Amino acid sequence: MSQQQYFHQGSACALPIDNVDTDQIIPKQFLTGISRDGFGAALFYDWRYLDDGAPNPDFVLNQPQFQGVSILVAGHNFGCGSSREHAPWALAQFGFKVVVASSFADIFYRNCINNKLLPAQVSTTDLKRLTAVCEQRAEAIKVDLEQQQLVLSNGEAIPFSIASSDRDQLLDDCDFIGVAEQHLDAIDRYENDRATTVPWFMPLSFTV
Amino acid sequence: MGMTLYEKIYDQHQVAQLNDSTDLLYIDFHFIHEVTSPQAFAGLKQAGRTVRNPVATLATMDHNISTQNRRIDGAGEVSQQQLTALQKHCREFQIPLIDITHRDQGIVHVIGPEQGITQPGMTIVCGDSHTSTHGAFGALAFGIGTSEVEHVLATQTLPQQRAKNMKVQIDGQLPMGVTAKDVILAVIGRIGTAGGSGYVVEYCGSAIESMDMEERMTVCNMTIEMGAKAGLIAPDEVTFSYLQGRPRAPSGDQWQRALARWKTLKSDADAVFDKTVHIDASSIRPQITWGTSPEQVMAVTERVPDPANFPATEQQRSVAKALEYMGLTPGSLLQDYPVDVVFIGSCTNSRLVDLRQAAAVVKGGRVAPHVRALVVPGSAQVKREAEAEGLADVFRAAGFEWREPGCSMCLAMNDDIVPAGKRCVSTSNRNFEGRQGRLARTHLASPAVAASAAIHGYLSTNPLVSGEGLI
């Protein structure tokens, strides 16, 4: 397989914690901006930095052997809690392209897809194995989205699942609002119909 | 085969099929707020798009505002920038805005129902995970990300995939002093933080039916804390009587038509649920969280769990980590730990019923000298009503701070922050690490339990045990 056919190739680190919530991924004090940029430095802020703002040497992203990682091997129910899309923005802006977990929270999962960040779901057993490897070293992994597998440096392949429509959205350079706009006639028809059947849902004006 | 309420609402909103698994669903109403909308507006402008249906949208300011005053710069310059951006975007796209000084201002999930905007059978979204609150009216309501906010602004639709159906049936009578908050915390304890992933949860049973709308909102609000897409309660007479006469509810002939339609909104008797959970209401006790996830919850009289008693090593590790963060010893009683802060508020528990329950416990008492306690009503309307009823006087006389409406200490985006290492009993919805401030220790509980902790200065002063009356 040629290099281009991989969705991504990079090195991985492990964060083997279950139920990592989006408050941990990006704490609220960094949500005050009005742009989509500048969140990478605040990723995992409370774990990554000490009280005085210095890097916490115990945190995986601060350890020398894990510099430059682009694949995060997480735990179960990653991304639960707040709907803040700042979470995938922070992960992507830090440099992550792929998050591997045994499950993802629904809103976070959708936010990842909409930001071309791959949420790769693997079995609990495979996650344990992968975590063990990535705790030792920044394992080089090839991410094959067509075949839906993570290929480790020894050639071992770990399958992951993703809905085909989500895979297509990651691979296509499509504007997902543009997809809906192809159905504007249907939306018009729907609204006209609703104005008759449920007019109380369709206010013509609304002043506060 | 019969259909669930979720399936009925889903089907009624299908505009087009995008592929094998994805439908384009029509969104009846879209709430926006200052924190998760600016980038959506920027995206719209960048792509040369506009807002398709501004009057199906309502903007409010709640997350980032001061609750000490109504000044737009009350919570600092950075927050002001976000608030003025919202004003500007609403003017530009002609979206109705309930500004910080508006007489109806409040937390988005409090004012939507209050104004009669939230109605049975609707699809409702907001860039906020607690949008599940609106499911209490039999509306399909869920939180979305900012890219989806942009999508809804542009098209009034969202691509969606069908969720699975879960039924949570709670029958029987709740013991005295057990509230809706205890019910949902107990449910989350049973189902787990991820147990609802991929599901829409419909709550039913006699205990749910006997709740008023504000209690039902508390239940649906925290549905997201078990990972579910949305919570639903079939509309009934309680729903209809709550809605009748509200500013945005249908009136006259349309009320009758709406009512006829709303009465059809329930799961069929032969509807199939992918998962069903039964809970005996009489077995539920006042709850409190001991850890850093809403599933780490117990009855207030129970002992703090011991990591060694959990079967899996991952669980042992996560429980030990939570207890270390929370500063709790396995096997201890929470009543032995002094409380530093009590917060009564948030989209979970800031409505009039919540404040009444708290005030009933507080009445005549004094906040313990070492406790800082605040009540943040959910909306300006709740605040006015609570003041008219004398609840505000009860709180103030006891030494509570009585604040202006906003999200406040639930997520501590403004200056309402729990200091590091301090212990807070909070009526909000998340006890995550750092949620209420870096290294802050959060215990989630009902307004009654929180009020009791404020007066006694210690956790776990169970209103049931201590004999304090609830209304």
TrEMBL record, chain A:
Molecular function GO terms recorded: 3-isopropylmalate dehydratase activity
GO cellular component: 3-isopropylmalate dehydratase complex
Catalytic activity: (2R,3S)-3-isopropylmalate = (2S)-2-isopropylmalate
Highest taxon of source: Bacteria
GO biological process: L-leucine biosynthetic process
CDD domains: IPMI_Swivel (cd01577)
EC numbers, comma separated: 4.2.1.33
Domain Aconitase A/isopropylmalate dehydratase small subunit swivel: 9-123
Keyword presence, Lyase: yes
Keyword Thylakoid: no
Keyword entries, A-Z: Amino-acid biosynthesis, Branched-chain amino acid biosynthesis, Leucine biosynthesis, Lyase
Pathway: Amino-acid biosynthesis; L-leucine biosynthesis; L-leucine from 3-methyl-2-oxobutanoate: step 2/4
InterPro entries in UniProt: 3-IsopropMal_deHydase_ssu, Aconitase/3IPM_dehydase_swvl, AconitaseA/IPMdHydase_ssu_swvl, IPMI_Swivel, LeuD
Entries under Pfam families matching the protein: Aconitase_C (PF00694)
Assembly and oligomerization: Heterodimer of LeuC and LeuD.
Biological function: Catalyzes the isomerization between 2-isopropylmalate and 3-isopropylmalate, via the formation of 2-isopropylmaleate.
Family designation: Belongs to the LeuD family. LeuD type 1 subfamily.
Protein name (record): 3-isopropylmalate dehydratase small subunit
